[in-house]
Input
Amino acid sequence: MATVSAPNARPPAQDILLAARAISKVYESGRSRLVVLDQVTLDLAAGEFVALLGPSGSGKSTLLRILAGLVPPSAGEVLVHGTPLRGINDRVAVVFQSFALFPWLTVLENVELGLLTRSLSRAERRQRALAAIDLIGLDGFESAYPKELSGGMRQRVGFARALVVEPEVLLMDEPFSALDVLTAENLRHELLDLWRQRRIPTQAILIVTHNIDEAVAMADRLVVLSPPPAHVRVDIPGLPVAERGRGTEHSRLVDAIYQLMTNPEADVAALLPVARPVEPGVPRRPYQMLPPVSIGRLTGFIERLHRLGGREDMFELARALHLEADEIIALAEAADLLDFATIEAGDIVLTPVGQAFAEADVLREKEIFRHQALAHVELIRDIVQELAATPGHRLPEERILARLQAVFTPDEARRQLDTAIGWGRYAEAFAYDDHAGALYLEEPPSSSPPAAGPRG
Output
């Protein structure tokens, strides 16, 4: 198993600007109770650039909003310089993925919005807004409206609006994910230059990202959350600046984090000897978390991996396919769940079943998929068993959705059911009446579906 050599140690103890102390977030609706965050503890010190990683749905954005005071925690507390936060955190500014600009305001007016709550004269607001616009590279576009700007320029406005308030801590929620690759790369470099040259007043930065390569290239520390209910799985020192974005150590750290995020059972100490201790695990969900992967993408992924010889480095495969980390991880998790592939030391490797699937014609492919889905996917197996035991072999989807909503958020429960329906229909395990919102068996069951067996 590949390991990462010791990167630079975390900076000496400094003043903690912002801290989460045993933060939990629970959403309750009727009898449903969903734990998104489970006793998350995190410190952000002066001079640090920290990246927060984790699988989809792990509560990364929720934690960021709690730190900003936009969402209250269910338990635990946020500390600002050691003092419990009450209400909005006025020492931070947030840059969102969606730009969040007002289309009827000019660039200058959008940036000035951040200062409206400050005791400043109109002239002072204008002066500070113009300085922020110049700093972020938008000089000359003060009178332009958002519709006149490219995506990258609109995000620059978002950065200027955040920086104009001179925040002590800058929080960024997937700030580059809505941009094309080249624009995102350019904006990342410019932000890092401003940060490293101390041309912005911000004392610390926390970025939520799903892009592992981006996180390793930018951050002094990388904090990885577990699948929900999320806790801090590992806290990793970043690489020396000179080794970020290129070279063997960068690739090794990216590979190690890929392994951690795709394998809940991975040996953290073996992969990352310098990682800080992991918090205790949390109880397993009643249902597996199905990756939101369509049959077409999964089939294409398995066939591409087969053409590459059945084994490929996940990081390199993501680059070759122009996939973000969340996308390649979801595909790898789906392939692993169905026992079409395994993840070994940062590589994804086809199993014999996966090879047979890749080589099969359409009918045989569906047979293999049906067998694997019924053997390894609990939700699909439960649906088939419940349909087989129900008079008329027909169920309203609301019954299954209600059961999922006791485990997942309403939106995630819907995604889980939609994924199960897509996989189950392809496997011909059951059919779906979209008009009536009902699942049913097209033929009466002649025998019970296979029970879960050993993988392989």
